[in-house]
Each structure stands twice: as C-alpha cells, then as structure tokens.
What does this fold into?
Amino acid sequence: MAEGNNGFEPKIIGFLCNWCTASAADLAGTTRAQYPPNLHPVRVMCSGTVDPVYIIKSLLSGADAVMVGGCHPGDCHYVSGNYKARRRMAMLQNIFESLGLDADRIHTRWISASEGPEFAAAVREITEETRKQGPNPLSADWAL
Amino acid sequence: MAKSATLTVKDGQIRGSINALLKDLLDKQVVEAILVPLVHPAGNNVVQSLVTNPEYLEQADVFAPVMPVNAGRIIQAMTRLTPANKKTAVVMRPCELRALVELVKLRQARLDNLYLIGIDCPGAYSVSDYPKFAAEKTSDDFVKAAWNGKEDPMLRAGCQVCEYPVPLMTDLTIGLVGQDLSKELILIASTEKGEELLEGLGLAAEDKSDAATKRETAVTKLLDKMKGIREKFFEQTKEEIGGVDKLAAVLGPCIKCQNCRVACPVCYCRECFFVSPTFELEAEKYLGAAEKKGAMRMPTDTLLFHLTRMTHMAASCVGCGACEEACPNDIPLLKIFQLTGTNVQKLFDYIPGRSLEDELPPTAFKEEELEWIGEK
It folds into this structure.
C-alpha cells in the first residue's frame, strides 16, 4: 500500500477493445501475470465506440480513474476506430484541463492481443498512479 | 481577388440605404426571397424573416442590436429536408454564418441557391434589453457608436469577447469597419455568387479600392484588439470556474432545462442522448444511486450534461452565446463553452465556420498526430 492514502483502494473502469486490449487481458489472466484487482473491465467492440459520456459518467459515479484500451494506431480491427478514439480522448482531456478537472485520471493505452505482460504492467501503473492521486473529488460530490 | 463596390449612405441614413439595396435585390429579381431581420410590429424585437414582397423590406434593420436566435438554426430548419428551390439571399451576422457552415458540414443544412450576405457585426443586446435601447436609439446610432474605443457593457456576453466580428465565409459582405459611415459603406464580393449580386444590382465592382484597403487595415486592428480582450477573458474565466468546487458553484443554479442545448446552433442531434430513454429509470435505480453517495442531486446528471455537450460540440462552438442567452438562471455558459471550445479548436488547429473544406475534428484523423495519447 502506498503512503498517505490509508486503506484507499482505487476503483478503475476500463473500456477495453474486444480485439486487442480485452484479449491482452485474457492473455494476462491465462499466463497468470500479476496485476491489481482494481480494474473493472468493460469489453467494447472498439475503442472508437467509447463516447466520452461513458468516461465522464464513470468519473462522476464512483470511478477514481478510467482507462480506455485499444489496438495500436494503424492496427484497428475496423481500420480507423482507434484514430477517432485518439481524437476523442485528446479532446476530453483537453476539456478537463481547461476546466481545472483531473485530466490525469483519464488514461489511454494501446495494447495488442499478444501483449499480456504489457496489459498487466499498464494496470499496475494506473492503479499506483491513482492510489497516489487519492479519491476522485468528482465522484464524492453529491451536488454535481 | 475580392471585388468591392461602394454603397453611398443617402442622407446619412445607413439603415435606409441598406434597405434600399435589399429592395433592389428583389425588385431587379436578382433573388426571389431574402431572409433578413425585420422590426417586429410591436417594436420590441427584430426577428429574422423570410421576405418575398419588397414592401416589407422597409421594416428591415440588419444592424439592430439584437439576435433572438442564431440564424444558422433557421437555415437548418429551412433546408434540412430539401435545398432552397429559389434564389434566396440571407443576411446574417458572422457567428450565424459560421454556425451555418458547421451545420452544412454536419449535413444539417444546404447552401444551394443561397446567397450569403454577411455583415460586419457591431454586436447585439439581449432580447430582454433590446426594448430599452429601441425606445431611445436607432440602429444607425448604434452602428456609428460601435468600435469607437468605448466598451459597451450592455452587449451580450458573447459579443463582448467576439473573436470574429467580421464574416469568415460569405458571398457578399456589408462592410462597416474602417469606413466613413456618414458617407459610404463597402460591399465586398468574395465569391462568384457575390459578384453576381453586385452585377445584378448594377454596382460597379473594383478589384482594389482605397475603401477595401482601409477596411483590411481596420479589420486586422480590430481582430488584434479582440484577441487581447479574449486573452484576458480566458485568464479571468479560468480563475472564476477552474476546479471542481468552482465549477460546481457556477453550475449550482442549473435546473437541467436544456435550453442551452436547444438554443445552441451547432448542437444538432435530432435525438439528443439526454432526452433519450437512457435517462428514464426505475425508482429503484434512483434510490440505489442515491444510496452510494448518501445524497444525490435531482434532477440528476447536471455536470454530466454540460461536460458531454462540450465533448460533442466544443470543436464547432462559434461563441455566439445563444446558450447563455437561453439560460433562465444566468449561468455564464458562454464563458465555460468558449474556454473549452477555443482550447479544443487550438488542439486541432480548427476554426469553426472558416471554410467548408476544413474537416470537422471529431470526424477526421491523421495517422501521425497526438502521439502523447496512449503513452504513460
């Protein structure tokens, strides 16, 4: 456990592309790669299907961080879905930054189906970073 | 290059001279209809109206300082199903034209048979403030006092920090900036359609006139000045609304009526997510959600609504301020949306309403860009 936030266990919602990152998650599981249980995965058909509203809703409803996982740019199963996701993620982070909200609770990772260890490492990194950040102030506020 | 012609201001009457010009457009059958703001018979508003009988153009008042709705929306309503079947001139403010260009790119409006006439825009007052102005002054008084260095605190929030008070994409511009308004205005044709209008009116168009050069210099100066005003405005806005607590306070008065969404010219979805059945929930869902936090504001999802709207239309926000005008509780929505909108537009080097060729950022991509997304 990290210092400072005693007993705080981050809750992270992951929107994972069926063809790449969700398969990498499976691979991480079957190869018994170790990573923290803080990620709650939601399998989506493409990172390009993730409307920012899902990310915002997660952050307003109890998530301390959100991870969107897709195929590497250039490798999208649907040709260009992740390129569009990349623009959306950039836009969403930019909006959070403009408003002084925590843009660094919004993560994107390009992880292919064969990258089980990379998936485990990404979840470890994001969990540790979120642990340091502490609870998400957006999800604690009842009046938003 | 753009051709321009001079419009003489007869007897010092700017409004009268422009109305005569518009009347000419119909009389000489250059166009068959004109969308133009007419003074409401009650005198308390000036409303965009579709005119086919030239007599009504006596009521036209294109520079009257009031913009009840963004006319981009009006063209959308008119041309979404079918394009205009008659030559129609539309007289619009720069932010209205920019919204229209965005709507065309979003396939919500069509420009076929439309002749875009843009005005150099000295700004507008709120619909509720306009009658006070109209009781004492005329649009000619307003235009003559505009850009004289004094700031007008009664102007709508959007107009006070307007980035482009001059048209970006138009066929013909009615130019005021840098002109001696007691004598003449300048008409600038930036397209073939614009030249067609000048020709039809029998106005001699020149390639390069003194008046055009004067306007160009004055426009550069005006845009520079607005840039300075905007930089200060963004700094202040960040101070005022930055962070969860301040943002929550600013949105405290929100009743989620969604008037801002309805008034927004570029928030175009036929079926908005926020009026969809997604938000029709069983009582147990509400009670369950409330239990998580111990208390939950009702109606729910006010911040979600505004943030989501931003992610959907920030790239196309033209800063017209219709959102703020529509808010029953005076939430400074223009500030919030201009701050986020401008930054998103900078990110993609996009200027909404500049041209039909620039691709809408959320629908396009480049293979090599935004490399920091996806990295630790």
